[in-house]
Amino acid sequence: MSKALILVDVQNEYFADGKLPLPDMNEALTHIEALLTCFRSSRLPIFHIQHFGLTEGGPFSLGSPGAELHDRVKPRLGIQPPEIIIPKYYTNGFRMTWLAAALQGSGVTEVVVAGAMVQNCIDATVRAADDFGFKVTVASDACAAAPVTLKDGQIIEAATAHDVVLAALSNVSDVRPTTEVIAQIEQERQYAADHVPWGG
Hints:
Elements: E1 2-8, H1 25-41, E2 46-51, E3 84-88, H2 99-105, E4 108-116, H3 118-131, E5 135-144, E6 148-149, E7 155-156, H4 158-169, E8 174-176, H5 178-194
Parallel strand pairs: 1-2, 1-4, 2-3, 4-5, 5-8
Antiparallel strand pairs: 6-7
């Protein structure tokens, strides 16, 4: 089984100087960095989903600072396997992109998903990954949500929106904290090292 990391929209727009800052994005970024370190050291595939808005001057508009991947997660050059950037224009990271083909071409059967925002692109991308037959794990604390305003004006806090959406996603994915995701990868890596065929 080959496992890949999918980082969804970890872009400047969701941080303090962006047009759509998320309350817990900085905390999520710390966990995202831990995932990156783990996947890089394990030489597992990493896919960066980069969203571009279709409205000129709007959030994630092409060429704007907000559309850029955050400096702390930008792909590293000269490593194997290479980190791949997948541009997208819709909520679902698989819609009209080559993400599914890239994953399948890399022999990936299981994906770990992290990024933003939980109630939009994370939700849509996780469900699509399940539809494509991938086993999906969501790193819960490596994801950030936005507050939700209901029709009556009531505001659902971001932390509550985060927990509710991820609880719903547990029907199609394994939702767990980053520490558990990393521990499983390290366990799998150790198992593989201990079971290398003679002469391998």
